[in-house]
Amino acid sequence: MAVYTDVTAEDLSAHLARYDIGTLLSFKGIAEGVENSNFLLHTTGGSFILTLYEKRVDPKDLPFFIGLMEHLAARGLTCPQPVRMKDGETLGELAGRPAAIVTFLDGMWIRRPQVMHCGAVGKALAELHLAGSGFALTRVNALSVPGWRPLYERAKDRADTVAPNLAATIAAELAHCEVSWPKDLPTGVIHADLFNDNVFFLNDRLSGLIDFYFACNDILAYDLAICLNAWCFSPDSEFDFAKGRAMIAAYQAVRPLSAAETAALPLLARGSALRFLLTRLVDWLNVPPGAVVTPKDPLEYLRKLRFHQKVTSPTEYGLA
Amino acid sequence: MAVYTDVTAEDLSAHLARYDIGTLLSFKGIAEGVENSNFLLHTTGGSFILTLYEKRVDPKDLPFFIGLMEHLAARGLTCPQPVRMKDGETLGELAGRPAAIVTFLDGMWIRRPQVMHCGAVGKALAELHLAGSGFALTRVNALSVPGWRPLYERAKDRADTVAPNLAATIAAELAHCEVSWPKDLPTGVIHADLFNDNVFFLNDRLSGLIDFYFACNDILAYDLAICLNAWCFSPDSEFDFAKGRAMIAAYQAVRPLSAAETAALPLLARGSALRFLLTRLVDWLNVPPGAVVTPKDPLEYLRKLRFHQKVTSPTEYGLA
């Protein structure tokens, strides 16, 4: 749940005068996004999302995030489209915070995705990868391999309180990834966080991708590995071959994987599992007293990691 | 900020099949109401609010609250109108909780109300009092005089940590109210919590009243006293005569006060200030560790109480 910055009707109405989207009819703080404050606006011009960027987002990254959504939307991807002010700017300031308004997307996220949803996500991910090419700005992935050891250092002393030998398991996997991580695979803009709650569906058709605040430049196939982890396991962390096959086939129908990408998929999937294991573990070990938000279970990603460690061929993910 | 019960798109879509309001396009948990979970729905039939009633609301009171909104809306008051299901019911169950869907009201609450806003509230309050007559159900006001001593008992031992001699001040005022409280004034359905954030305005016109979850049967003029306290003081708790005069005049234009009601106004205002002083004090002294919500300042109502204690004539509130 987001913590909301307090915005008054008076201040927001004044802010909207900078835009050409009509006058304010209502606005509600919404429980979407844990990093920022989000408001659903109804104006005489339609529905919009107002985002106030809170401390955890580096303001220097905002031109990348907002520019990327604009770049992708202009290329036909259904993602929130930043609304330009009358003076052409997309980033303003409201309640002392950087603020942007984007178009509202219909749709709901699916709690229990089926094979068809995984196929739709694979297709949309490949479309995102193609549409991202040509985007002028770049952003390093702070949560790729070089970012994992600092997370391990923060968690290692108490990791074994979460699961037996967890620190040693992570240390070994981390060393393996650091040594083996592929260096020559195709890179580009990746979403890097395309979990269930960031994909909207309407009547089982994918209606939009949201939350580009982890987007960055990295190995494209790594983004697919993140999605395999996020979408293609059962609730008890068993890999679902039918879902994996559907996702990869739909991805390849838009952007075929090279032989090198295919070969690297098991390693990329291990790295992706390790990345979410590490960030969840750090969050788990650092829950503020009295926090309302329950942290996500890190052990879900330990189970996924163990599956990937046993994979001997990318065909086990459903590659044709 | 509300704590949200988790509702899935799958469950909500199934629930909406009981209604005739179209199919779901989107839904967002909104930061409105501290007692219940609220969601803003977009359907092919329009915008609606879904409320899930949490533990702090007694399910036995729900027919009163929901029936009242329906009764008032049918009499032209702009308040959320409960939507009936195909079988005629207004109260269902979702995610294990009692659930109702009401119409969505445009408008925003005003942070810094002006004289004209206070006039609009006075008029709407009188309209509510007239429209409430004939409503078949009744609900005792648990936060009227008999409910104040138990609050005092919970707070008295630590009250003086909040302000010097606060316990003694409250004890004296409580004794005064218990002895002097009027018994023969006109009663009816009152809102009992018509603060700024429960009144919507659109272009300075009152567009709706919300949050009827303190509504009950009590002295009508007591509701006016609550509004004088909530709306007609400056931010530093000075009574604003122009606002009081505007509110009372607009109220009387719809429902003239009797001589007995007028005479009782200073006492009703004292009681109202004591009631919010007490509930805020109890909340202030019982903030859970790590709570995200900042409790409201009880001393604002101590300052208001002190103003009312010095009032010698109802004309000091702006009565013509």
Automatic annotation (TrEMBL), chains A, B:
Pathway: Amino-acid biosynthesis; L-threonine biosynthesis; L-threonine from L-aspartate: step 4/5
GO function term, MF aspect, one: homoserine kinase activity
Enzyme class: transferase
Superkingdom in the source lineage: Bacteria
Domain Aminoglycoside phosphotransferase: 27-257
Gene3D superfamilies the UniProt entry points to: 3.90.1200.10, Phosphorylase Kinase, domain 1 (3.30.200.20)
Keyword terms, alphabetized: Amino-acid biosynthesis, ATP-binding, Kinase, Nucleotide-binding, Threonine biosynthesis, Transferase
SUPFAM superfamilies: Protein kinase-like (PK-like)
Pfam families cross-referenced by the UniProt entry: APH
Enzyme Commission number: 2.7.1.39
Catalysis: reaction(s): L-homoserine + ATP = O-phospho-L-homoserine + ADP + H(+)
Amino-acid biosynthesis as UniProt keyword: yes
GO terms under biological process: threonine biosynthetic process
HAMAP family to which the protein is assigned, alphabetical: Homoser_kinase_2
UniProt record similarity statement: Belongs to the pseudomonas-type ThrB family.
Record-given protein name: Homoserine kinase
Annotated source species: Phreatobacter oligotrophus
